[in-house]
Amino acid sequence: MRISWLILIVFLLGSGKVCSQKISRDMAEKDLMYMDKYLGKWHPSYHRYTTRSYKDSLINDWLGRQQDSVGLRALRYFLNTFVHEMGCGHTSIGLPASIAKTKVKAMPILFFTEGDRLFVRRCDQVDSPLQPGDEILTLNGYTALQLLDTFRQMIPKDGYNATHVDMRAEKFFHYFFNHVFGPQDSVSLLFTSADGSRMNTTLYGSYDLSKAEDLVHQKADTTLCVFGPEGGMSLQPLPGVENGAVLKITSFSGGGQKKVRKKIFRYLREKNIQHLVLDLRGNGGGNVFRGNALIAQFDRRPVTGVHFGKKVHTAIFCPKFKTGFGNRLSGFSFMLNPMSYPSRKGWMHIFPFFRKSNRYDGPLYIMTDGATFSMASSVTSKLRFNRKKTYVFGEESGGGAAGSGGMLQGAIELPTSKMRVTFNIYWYQIDKDIPDVGRGVIPDIPVTYDLESKQKGEDPGIQKVSEWILLNAG
């Protein structure tokens, strides 16, 4: 049943009602062959989770269902579903530059999901009857299930992970709606209000949709911070636990992290903090060296290494690989690194990290969810694998537990459609002994974030950690 819904929506993607820009089927095939060729040459894990024959079958099946011309939006949708099946969350499909810079309207509404159901988080349209908690039954005639299934098919993921896909479908629902159906001046909705009655309403597209930075968990109350927020890092007391603290890191890309990290770990030692929560929920990753600098604050070993590598190729010198001068220079410097070795995963490079002062040796409780991605997932995996008394709470992390194709980004431009396929050419290996089964870090203590807790702004994750410590520590 679900497959037929997807086919219907994908059919409409190719119609004139959805996308007026088209190219010939032969040109679309040329683009697909070009993409397949260069991802096969340069992507570090192109065939890690799917075989070449399976990818060929996806391409041939899609081409076989096309007419003489192909809508660009339909082509982009297929490219995204192809990347989804490929299993690399760092690979994405961008529109041609001429279209990508066009400012489009968006629905003035944000959502929560619970399974396959859709609920209003916030509606910014003046005089709209929609209220937080109302359930959306249909948008432009499509059910919430039909839309969510469609979006889930096109969201890139690491391996076979589902939590990252589900969270992005919720957080960026308004974006994916435009992605699939194109800019909408208005959207008709059927919804159920709080008293159980069904109502219809219309939302009008807005250029001024305010962005919520975190649609799943409330932002931390910064008035409680001992340090930060600075550089994406903050430290707060752990509610209900004496000598407990919560280190929240929203990204490994923020400036000033080295300075605030030193202050935080000096404070942890001086105050004899015995229970530290590392909250990486919603952390999409960032700089690999900043992430490993944090790992060194917890690791007993005198020296730890960052291992990453690529297939033997010269993409950094090739003009068809679209990347900046800094990335090309970095790739060249990696090649000159004397601490390198060959492996089954390609040519690997090692960068050492030395044990830090003010190291934290006590129990560590790491909190993750589907948005814990890339470097944040790597930090979780490496600490959980190499460190005693380290416990993971929450949901399966969005990034792979063994590593990811997430180092040195560039793109190829498809010759006809001019769409850009963005990806990284290096594979980041978290630890040589962690098997790659295509999943994220599985929590030791699962935490469920249900609709009620989301709507009330409650944090069952922190509550679960505090309760667990009080019951088990001592």
Description:
With 474 residues, the chain is α+β, with helices and mostly antiparallel strands. It has 3 domains: 76 residues; 96 residues, Pdz3 Domain (Roll), CATH 2.30.42; 251 residues, 2-enoyl-CoA Hydratase, Chain A, domain 1, CATH 3.90.226.10. The chain has 14 helices and 21 strands. The strands form 4 sheets. The chain has a 7-stranded mixed sheet, sandwiched between helices. It is globular.
The helix/strand class is alpha+beta
Number of strands: 21
Q: Please tally the helical runs, counting DSSP H or I stretches of 4 or more residues.
A: 14
Mean pLDDT reading: 87
Report the biggest beta sheet as strand number plus sense, adding barrel if it closes.
7 strands, mixed
Fraction in beta strands: 15-25%
Number of domains: 3
According to CATH, the fold-level topology of the largest domain is: 2-enoyl-CoA Hydratase, Chain A, domain 1
* CATH architecture label name of the largest domain: Alpha-Beta Complex
Output the strand order for the largest sheet.
Answer: 10-11-12-13-17-18-21
Low-confidence stretches: 14-19, 210-218
Distance between the termini: 53 Å
The radius of gyration computed from the alpha-carbon positions, rounded to a whole number of angstroms, is 23 Å
CATH superfamily of the largest domain: 2-enoyl-CoA Hydratase, Chain A, domain 1
